[in-house]
Amino acid sequence: MPEETSEQRQRLMLGIVQAVSEISGVEESAIWVYLCSLAPDDMVEYGHVLPTAWRRTAVVQTLPSELKRYLSSIGVENKKLADKGEING
Predict the structure, then answer these.
(1) Is 48 helix (H, G, I), strand (E, B) or coil?
(2) CB-based burial, 35-59: b 16+ in 10 Å, e otherwise
């Protein structure tokens, strides 16, 4: 997947500021947004280092059944993951 452009990141940050301001009633000038670009292997989720894209399928398939059930309960459906080629649906 290609990296985001500076323009895309700026639009994202300004959109976040606007949304937070509208929802919270806080002036936009009082809201700070910082983006931190991390490689997947610089992050841990659900107790696992995030895999690179080419390893994602294998890693997701090895997740414990309990974690897969939890992800399903919060709306991460097997079909969605299967459509992305991340697990066998």
Answers:
(1) strand
(2) eeeeeeeeeeeeeeebeeeeebbee
Q: Which H or E run includes 6?
A: helix 6-24
CA distances, 79 to each of 5, 8, 14, 60 (Å): 31, 29, 33, 13
Q: How far apart are CA 16 and CA 81, in angstroms?
A: 27
Report the C-alpha gap between 19 and 8 in whole angstroms: 16
Q: Are 56 and 43 in contact (CB under 8 A)?
A: no
Q: What is the pLDDT of residue 77?
A: 58
**pTM more than 0.70:** no
Cα angle vertex 48, ends 39, 88, to 5°? 95
